[in-house]
Amino acid sequence: MIVTNFSTEKILTRRLDRATKRIEILEKMIETTSRDLFLANQQTIQEKEYIESLLESMGVSLIVVSHDGIIRQVNAETIRLLGYPAEQLLGKQFAELLGDNRFEELITDVAFSQYEWAYTAHDGRKIPVLLSGTPVRNKAGKVWATSCIAVDITQRKRAEGQFKVMIETSADAIMTLAPPDWSFTSGNPATVVMFRSRDERHFISFGPAQLSPEYQPDGQVSAIKSQEMIKLALRKGSHFFEWTHRRLDGQIFPATVLLARFEFAGEMQLLATVHDISERRYTEDQLMRLSKAVEYANESIVITDPQGVIQYVNPAFEKLTGYTLREAINQNPRILKSGVQSAEFYANLWQTIKNGHVWSGRISNRAKNGTAFIEDVTISPIVDDNGVITNFVAVKKDITKQIALETRALQSQKLESIGQLAAGIAHEINTPIQFVGDNTVFLQRAFSSLIPVLETGRQLLDGSKQDGKIAPKAVLAAEIAYKKAKIGFLAKQIPRAVEQSLEGIERVAHIVSAMKEFSHPSQGMMQSIDLNHAIETTLTVARNEWKYVADMETDFDQTLPAMMCLRDEFNQVILNIIVNAAHAISDNTNAGKDGKGVIRVVTRCDGRWAEVRISDSGTGIPEEVQQRVFDPFFTTKKVGLGTGQGLAIARSVVVDKHAGTIDIDSAVGEGATFIIRLPIHGVENTAKGSVM
Amino acid sequence: MKILFVDDEPRILEGIERMLFHLTDEWDIICTESGEAALEILDNESCQVLVTDMRMPGMDGAALLQEVCVHHPDVIRIILSGHAELESALRVVPVAHQFLTKPCAAETLVETVVRSCRLHKTLKNRELRKLIGKLKNLPSVPRIYSELGTALMDPAMDAQGVAQIISQDPAMCAKVLQLVNSSFFTRAAHISDISQAVVLLGFQMIKNLVLSVEIFHLSANTPKLPEEFHIEELQRHALSTALIAKDMFSGRLQVDDAFMGAMLHDIGKLILASEAPWELDNALKLATEETLPVFVAEQRLMGVSHAEIGAYLLGMWGLPYPIVEAVANHHNPMQYSQCTTFGIPEAVHLANDLVNGAEIDSGYLEDFGVTQKLAAWRKQAEDLCLTRGENLL
Fold first, then answer.
1. Ramachandran assignment for A246, one of left (phi > 0), alpha (psi -120 to 50 degrees), beta (any other)
2. What is the dihedral of CA A341, A347, A349, A350, to 10 degrees?
3. Are strands A300-304 and A389-398 parallel, antiparallel or unpaired?
């Protein structure tokens, strides 16, 4: 206890000393203050007002904090900023405004500037401020308070935040480079992703050279060229260029780079914005390919505006028509017009495409030098998002050669079937020639055996005229001659020989003229023909093909009017079907050894259509074969017996060239019927028909 | 003589009947319109000759001939067809003796029938039959020749295939090549490959060569050949005759037939040499003693000559009648009074005489209208004689 007492005493003594000292100080202060105030009373009143008004008019917040942490003075801006009434602020702990006690760091004898801090407003909002402080001294020069000037940086902070987000979320890689060696100093997340680095620090550990391939596409060394780019950017302020980068995983990619100079901490730095353009390059390549495709296409391609004014033609068009792109632009496609198609044809075409539909068909056109050509054309309207037609695109294939080839194929099939027919026709002709020849030899001999009869008869006549007496010798001679001549046989046979010879000659003439009629080329011209007669001719020519295996029945509708046809090609169709029918019957009758079958040809006039039905009692055509018989090169015959072209050509002739139809009605074991229907009034005004 | 005509066209039959009416004393003509009816007639009547059309409804000509070949082998079978293109195909199958195409001239028809009948008579000769009966092993159709015949029936057969058949026998191969490269066939380039030879000579000619090689080969192996018989000489003679005879024609079939007929015209000698060497020896001796032609000596001793014997064998093998006839009659051809056409037998006869250096009957040539060509043929024969030294076997 004694100790305690002693120490208490000591402490108390010390306190007392201190208090005494304070009192002394206070006394002095009061003394000086009151003296000062007193002295200054009159002189400073104006000065004080001036300062106060100055403070009030400051656009920044001013708070004077005494070193005990109490707010001593505020200006109007502070009140506005913090939303406190002035009386609540004065005497408040500065720490409350700052949100912590760190004010002790600030409130010292030393001035400070530009501290980023935040005030807590009356409503609890944090207001970011830039704080500067100046110590306030009393008359004795002692610092007793600090005046804090705060600039509201809410706007700046917000902007900074936005920039940060922008940079953080930018798809472009944004990085900074700093001298002296222009290595990276920072990079946003996109940079990390773009270059495939782990994180920003990892990224910065690489130099620009490591992020580029050794050479740029123009052949320059990347390390050298990048220095040039940097120099340019520093000189011009910024520089935009394309650059090929290399990701850390080794992948090369094209990019655009914007290098911009900026000053930071007193030195020039560079901000680089790298935009990966591999996507764009891909799209560009894609577009390039498409445009190359259009350019190199074998088909002519024409693009027009909605009025039909040419805006583009490709080189194939130039080559085919002889009009260059320059010549064709701003022209109407009618520069190619050949006059083959009618006005209605074009009207129909325009109507179709202007209604937004695709038109396709065959057009006969004329090149710049007058050469005619035939094209398969597809014209498509191009519409924008609003459904408005912006362009028409025509894709046109020159089929002049193809048509020539098709014609040649038809011709060769015709020749082939004529070759096949020739042997049969030779037989058809040789048979009458054989018996006409035999009959003529007979007539020759008959005549020479009759001469003695006539001779002796004349002698008898002469004798009876001269003296009325007939010499017995002459009678005997006449009798012998008469007997030898076999007059009875001759009298019976000569008329028949003559009759059959004439008939034989008629038969030959008929076959020859049918042959001529059958094979005479129509030169692709539609002619008015009698269908019945044409069929009859074909049956005559092909007679040798069917006569051994089948009887021919015909039932022709005589009211069938003459109609426009490609005569030779129609004949070809009938021939092909008849020959097939004969083969089918031959298969069914053991080549005629088991008796003949029947081929029946019927014609009918059915309204606007002429119908030809060719039926046979052959083997019939299985369902699955029926679907293919009109395909080119499809054949069920043995190798060497059929080319598979006959019915394909039949279909092409009937459907493509006569706008008709050809169908099969057949079942296995029940024969087959081919039904051909042709429009009586000729081919309608179709694109296909008009060029044939 | 009874002749049966078959054709599905009645006017043809009527025409033939009328044309032949002047022969009604010698010929009895029967006509019918179908193969079936023809067979019925043949069953009931003894016809010597059948002339038929090829394409007919029901039974066609080929089928009819096949039937006749089996059931009436003695009937002479002639085709009269409007389908000329069938001839080559039909020649491969020996169902017809003769082939005529429509339109056929009256005299050709008559002549063909006459020739066929004459040959038929020759082959039916009693003396010949007697001699043939004595020969023990008459050679059958040579193997490769018959294989080629079968193979060539296939229209898709090509040179490679033919070459393959011939190549089965290396000896045959070598012989054919030796022949085509001999101076008989004057060719610029040496032919070293059998398929090349096939392409150059054609199927028919190769087939003919094969047959002649095979026949000469058969006899060459006979050990008991008569002393005075030189097989090599015989082959050289045959080839020379063949080359001259074939140049007397231009049509492909005729060229082939002429070559073949001439090539084989002495085949009877080979048969005699191997099968009846003693008789042949006697005949050769007689010919030398009395300076007679060999065939006359043969006839005197045996009643028939090698000509008929050879023809008989070829007829049996189914060779076409023109060839058989050429072999049978190469010593005594048809006279112009009987025939007007210069046919294969006439050509072989003439070529044989030219190669033998015999006197040529100019009147005979005049009748056939070939006098102006004689000089050229004679020159060719002389040229060929110069090749005598060459070894062919």
1. beta
2. 140
3. antiparallel
Residue B33 has pLDDT above 90, yes or no: yes
Assign residue B103 the CATH number of its domain: 3.40.50.2300
Q: Kindly report, residue by residue over B255-293, the tens digit of the pLDDT.
A: 888 888 998 899 888 888 888 888 888 888 898 898 888
**What is the total count of domains within chain B?**
2
- Cβ-based interface (< 8 Å): residues of A facing B: 423, 426-428, 430-439, 441-442, 445, 449, 486, 489, 493, 496-497, 500, 503-504, 547-549, 592-593, 595-596, 640
Residue whose token pair is 């505006």: A305
**Nearest of B11, B56, B115 to residue B345 by alpha carbon:** B115
State the virtual CA torsion across A113, A117, A123, A124 in degrees, nearest 10. -160
Domain of B340, in residue numbers? 131-389
Where on the phi/psi map is residue A56: left (φ > 0), alpha (ψ -120 to 50), or beta? alpha
- Both B250 and B313 in one domain: the answer is yes
Q: Could A500 and B82 be called an inter-chain contact, meaning their C-beta atoms sit closer than 8 Å?
A: no
Q: How far is CA A414 from CA A53, A545, A581, B25, B151, in A?
A: 119, 15, 18, 52, 32
| Residue of chain A whose Cα is closest to the Cα of B61 | A593
For residue A214, give Cα distances in angstroms to A231, A240, A246. 20, 21, 9
**Pairing between β-strand A267-276 and β-strand A173-178 as defined by DSSP bridges:** antiparallel
**If you measure CA to CA, which chain A residue comes closest to B24?**
A486
Chain position carrying tokens 């050809």: A662
At B304-319, the pLDDT tens digits run 899 999 998 888 887 8
Half-sphere exposure of B151 (CA within 13 A, CB side): 19
Identify the residue whose tokens are 């362009």: A391
- Residues contacting residue B218 through CB under 8 Å, at least 6 positions apart: B139, B142, B270, B274
Token duo for residue A524: 């692709």
Provide ipTM, 2 decimals: 0.73
Q: In what order do the strands lie in the sheet with A112-120?
A: A71-74, A61-66, A143-152, A126-137, A112-120
Tell me the H-state helices in A307-399: 315-321, 325-328, 343-354
Q: Which homologous superfamily does the CATH classification assign to the domain defined by A520-691? A: Histidine kinase-like ATPase, C-terminal domain (3.30.565.10)
A90-99, A212-221, A300-309, A453-462: range with lowest mean pLDDT? A90-99
CATH for A297-396, options being 3.40.50.10490, 3.30.450.20, 3.20.20.10, 3.40.50.620: 3.30.450.20
In a 3-state reduction of DSSP, which class is residue A513? helix
Q: Cα separation of A208 and B255, whole Å?
A: 95
Interface test with B, best of A429, A442, A638 (most B CBs within 10 A): A442
Is residue A600 a contact partner of residue A643, using CB atoms and an 8 Å limit?
A: no
Q: Which residues pair with A239 in a beta bridge?
A: A259
For the entire predicted model, the pTM comes to 0.58
pLDDT of res. B5: 95
Fold for the domain defined by A170-282: Beta-Lactamase (3.30.450)
Phi and psi torsions of B106, nearest 5°: -55, -45
Give me the sign of the Cα torsion angle A477, A483, A484, A485: positive
Distance CA A360, CA A42 (A): 108
C-alpha to C-alpha distance for A312 and A330, rounded to whole angstroms: 9
- Mean of pLDDT over chain A: 83
CB atoms within 10 A of CB B297: 22
Average pLDDT over residues A393-420: 78
Name the pLDDT band for A627 (thresholds 50, 70, 90). Answer: confident
- Which residue of A429, A433, A435 to mutate against B (max B Cβ within 10 Å)? A435
Statement to judge: residues B284 and B334 lie in one domain: yes
CB atoms within 10 A of CB B186: 9
